[in-house]
Amino acid sequence: MANRDSSSSTTAARETMDTLLEISRLLNTGLDSETLTICVRLVEQGVNPEALASVIRELRRETASLKAKEDTVEQ
Amino acid sequence: MAYFDKRAEKDLKKLIKCLTGFQEGSDNFTLSHEFALSNFRFHRYLAVDSHKVTRQLHGVCEKFAIHSQPHKHEVFKRLTDKFLNSPLLIDQDLMKSDAHYGILSILMLLSESPVSHHYKEQVSKPKTEEKDNFDWTSYLLEGIEIPSFLSSDEEWSNDEAASEPEDEVQDSGIHVNESDDTLVTTTLEHSEHVEQHAGKDWISNNVVVQYWHGDVEKHVFGGHPTSSLAKQWDLYLYEKQPFHQFGSKFTMTETQVVRETIWLLFGMSDMFVYKYTDNKCTCNADIQVSHLTPNALYSLLYYFARYGQMVYHLHQFIEEIITHSGNIDYKVSQTFQAFASSLSCFLQQFKSELCIIEKDIMKQDKNVSLSELKERIQPQLEVVATLYDIYNIGVNNSNGNSAVLLTAFYNTLLELQSNTVENTDRLKVCTVLSIWLTSTQPFINIIDEWISNGKLVDPAKEFIISRNEEIQTNSNEYWEKGYTIYGVSAQQSKLQQQQFTKDTPSESVGIPGFLEPILYSVISAGKSMDLVASLGRLTEKKLNLSEGDRISLFESFTKSLYGVWDIDESEDIDESSDSDDVVIDISQQQLTEVNLLLQHDAKLQSKQYTLSSKKSFSSGLPHELMDVFTDRPLDIQLVMHRCLYPHIIKKCNRASSHLVKLLKTEYHLLDYLAAMRYFYLMEAGDAMYDFYTDVFERLRLQEYWQDVTYLTNALQEAVHMHHSKHMSRLTVSVEPVSKTKRLPINALDVLTLHYKVPWPVNVVLNPECQQIYNAVFRLLLQIKRAKYCLEQLRFSDLTNVVSPSPKNCESENQHLVHRIYLIRVQLLHFVDCLHNYIMTRILHTTGWEFQQQLDTAVDLNQLLDVHTHYVKTIYERCLLNKKMGYVREAIIKVLNLALNFQKRWDGGLHTITEPILDKMEEEFKKCHYFLSKLFANTVKRGVFPHLELLAQSLQTSYMNATAHTKK
């Protein structure tokens, strides 16, 4: 009985995640399922959503500029 | 400060890895981590407000509606409602919690132009339930006959199938380069078993499924239990991980993957399984093979991707070389061209082997799995990896320097040769060796042309040596600066050229390792031949060549390598060992190996004859090389010492000795060297005596003598009698010197002899050498002047002027005169000793040694070395170098004393008083004592054995003088 409960809650959580992933795709956030899962966990653990969003934006920007620099050096 | 749960730490790290790709522990990762932590802890944002988020959600919905995107509007609304009414985590049942709004808030903050973004709804539903395979239709309709109707399959009628039975094909390939004939792209096979009823079914069964368009093979999941391994594994992951996407991967058959792998190794870039991004080969992450777990599949795919990428890059290099070869403005290095050509041959061979495997697959007689493919082509892949490493070092990181490529090859061969026990290693070594041999051809041809015709033909400027166009062949500096080694200054180049007799590290100047041992000889021979060509004497040399000498160096090399030249072998080895004494330093171990090889020769006789019929000189094919090295150990250094160096040395020796012979016979080098000794070193005593006595006499009489016309006339007259042929070349000039500390003995230092040496002898007798000859000439003049002055003193001159005086005065005078006589004799003895030492012990003996060395010199470099050594030796032994400055000073003092003494003698007895005489005696004694002691000590130490005679005579005379004074 307990197993059935846990499997049903897993299915429900998966569905929620699928829904969330669809919203993410619809809004064109560029987040993949893994990153999205991590974000959910972080928000659950009390991280401020706006702070998290700003960190994600900043890290993306820095990585892009770093990659652009590397490409320039290679050329 | 905001609260930050430590449990979130792990998630944060994961987030950074996902977003940036930085590895934990790297500087960038630490920076990112610190940045994120500080943002989470010290931010100014308010807590999430559900009303605000709801308003924003409405706003987005409205935006979609305004932009006429009702689908998005609906989907968004439905999804957000659904999301807010679902529990977020497994262990919670909360709905519309702060976390819900928080996560929606993040998504809206990260949203990037959702209106312009194309969206297609994807909802994956796991296929958890097995399909019911039971055929209920046939079960329920059992016994009821249903009339058959013409279906759409009728279009695929028997007529059509029967009409073109021979054209029906089994497609075996896809989207591959059509230009390449060897790549079997759409091989069509005639099927003899076409049944009459074959229609659409037959085609769909026999044509390769277009999996790249998403079509799945019917029988992709077989009946064997292992064929559902991937599915089982997927299901297991799905159960374990809530976010795992079940059944998201596209299933392919292993044969399809194997064939894509073969195409990858052909050098293709656009495929379904393998993709190229930024010139890096990656594997399609969304595929699976039914009987393999993803890990097993990807470990194999990435293994092949690595080699596929290498093959692809090698093909790109070949294409680039071919493209540039046609461009006149862009001169491609011939070595690179040769490398690309031999590389292409190797890859062609590799492709043909792959083709055989592909044909096996197409026949469907054999099963070829990925691991079987790996096992079959592993040796070739290892060769590819080795060649790619060489390409990377030699082409990618060499800035177009061909020498780096050849060095990379040579070093790889040296590394590989120790592992030639196994057959696979042997194949690798022989393949690398064969490609290397072809790649060395341009260098060897350049050397051949240079040492045969004196022309350094190097249009792409790839050879390590270049002609210095600023220096003409008839310049004095030609031999030293006429050619430079790339990346080395002229002076260093000269030094390097001198040092090549020893083993020098090749990395220092980028000289390929295999050329190091013979580079000295090659440079010497190349310059010699250039000089011979400039003299217009090249044709004579060519006429003297035998038939065997006319074949090219590379041809001789390959002939030797394949053992064709077995008849000349013993001769070659003898020659090489002779020349090795001079240039090549074969280690003891290598000599032992040569002996071992000679023992093998008897065994190989029969093999050599069979090989000689093949005559494959152009490039060594690996399997032929393997034949050659079946019985013998492969030692590349030994191969070079046996097969290449003897030929180069032979040609070099011939070229160098030809020039030396020309210089000695046609251009009278020996006569000019003799002239140097005659006039500068005053070996022509008769002629030079007339010249210098005339000048000395003028000096003694204090007449003007520095008139160049007078001096030249005097010299010409003196030389005219016995050495008339040198008259026109010999001149004398007066060059002012600094007047500091000038003693009377230095009066002749202004004289300089000039001898016009014609080209090409001026390469040997250059102005620097003449300067040294002049320095010796001036010293000789000083000694000869002192000697002459002392010899010219007449006793009568002194006695005649003695005035009548009282008897006691007379006895005093006689005593004084006696002392003057004594000092004259002592001075004369000293000067005579010195003169004899210089003229006989030094100049004559050293000259004799020089003559002997001159006869043994085989090339111009040696000849130059011998001459330079000779000039330096006489300079040192005449005590002219700086180290012996204090000795020379003492000698000059004595010589000057002799001149002063002569002056006073000429002035009469009254000019020589006892104090003056005492002073003279004292000075002479001091110098004499100093020199005799110094020379005696030097001789005792055995440093300068040639000083022995001088030391002995000075010692004796000093002892006699001391004994006399005591009496």
UniProtKB/TrEMBL annotation, chain A:
Keywords per UniProt: Cytoplasm, Cytoskeleton
Pfam families named among the record's database cross-references: MOZART1
Localization per record: Cytoplasm, Cytoskeleton, Microtubule organizing center
Predominant location: cytoplasm
InterPro entries reported in the protein's UniProt record: MZT1 (IPR022214)
Keyword Cytoplasm: yes
Sequence similarity: Belongs to the MOZART1 family.
Name of the protein: Mitotic-spindle organizing protein 1-like
Gene source species: Saccoglossus kowalevskii (Acorn worm)
Gene field: LOC100368118
UniProtKB/TrEMBL annotation, chain B:
Domain Gamma tubulin complex component protein N-terminal, first and last residues per copy: 258-666
Keyword Manganese: no
Compositional bias (Acidic residues): 155-170
Domain Gamma tubulin complex component C-terminal: 669-934
Residue ranges, annotated region (Disordered): 155-176
Location(s), subcellular: Cytoplasm, Cytoskeleton, Microtubule organizing center
Pfam families: GCP_C_terminal, GCP_N_terminal
InterPro entries, alphabetized: GCP (IPR007259), GCP5_N_ext (IPR059169), GCP_C (IPR040457), GCP_C_sf (IPR042241), GCP_N (IPR041470)
Keyword tRNA-binding tagged: no
Alphabetic keyword roster: Cytoplasm, Cytoskeleton, Microtubule
Family statement drawn from the similarity comment of this UniProt entry: Belongs to the TUBGCP family.
Protein name, entry field: Gamma-tubulin complex component
Gene of this entry: LOC100366929
